[in-house]
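Task 17 of the worksheet. Students: predict the tertiary structure of the chain below and write it out as structure tokens. Keep your answer in the requested format; marks are given for formatting as well as content.
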Amino acid sequence: MLRTTHVSWASTAKGYMNRVMVYAHRRRKARYLAPKNAHVRSPLAHKMPEEYGNTWDPRSGVEWHNRMRNRNHYRHWPWARWTDDPVRFHQDSVCHRTVSALSTVANNGAPEWDYYAEVGQAYETPSHFPLSYTAPFIYQYTAQCWSREDLQSYLERIEQSSGLRTIADAASRREALYTWWHNAGMNVIPLGVLQHLELVSRDIVAQNARKSYRIEQHERGILRTPEMERYYALPHLRGPSMPVQLAQPSGKYPSGKFTQMMEDVAIHPLQKPDARYKHNMYPA
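Model answer:
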């Protein structure tokens, strides 16, 4: 007799928790998500496949699991996001009347604080270099206002016509720089360029002074690692590294008195050398 299989018989089994009897199904596997390995110490945990090359930052552990899917007190993690703007870098809604209240353009690029002294960037630029070498350092804070070419032309104009050629000149002769600007360059060069130039040249000169002092102290024997941890080493030693003429052996075969008991050896009666743990427990 022809009978059809009842659908509900195949949908549940009589076993554990009435599970569905479908053995090859991937309904609950989200293949586009990173693998969720909460307690496993695996370099692939909580990473997309293009991040598998980073073996130096394992995101394993339940804390990383909680912060990747925003759980417990990591609910609003990360605390600092790319889009929030604590220093008003992306947009400046307030009109700072630093230079001029009439035109907004004159206020552009005026530094709001000393960026260079606070960031502590490694400049790798000697103080005797020309002023135009500071252009990439100034540009990274003023990219909203001036293009690279404009900034480079401003700095080249300053170094050609103001009489201050080098970074050290701009740091040491600030009054001469501003006097020249008031007399000759007000219509050509924005004031913000001069302010940035003053800050960055002062910081470059200070950093080079610190470096030269560090080199001098290193040569005097006060040794520090790049993280400024003190370490100690021997000075350059004179003379041969080993003795030139070694002490010659005495010529006797090294047969010990207690090893080969050939002659008369006096041993204390309470320290019997052959009794291991019975009679030899006398304290030394």
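Marker's comment: Residues 19-74 form one domain. The chain is about 30% helix and 0% strand.
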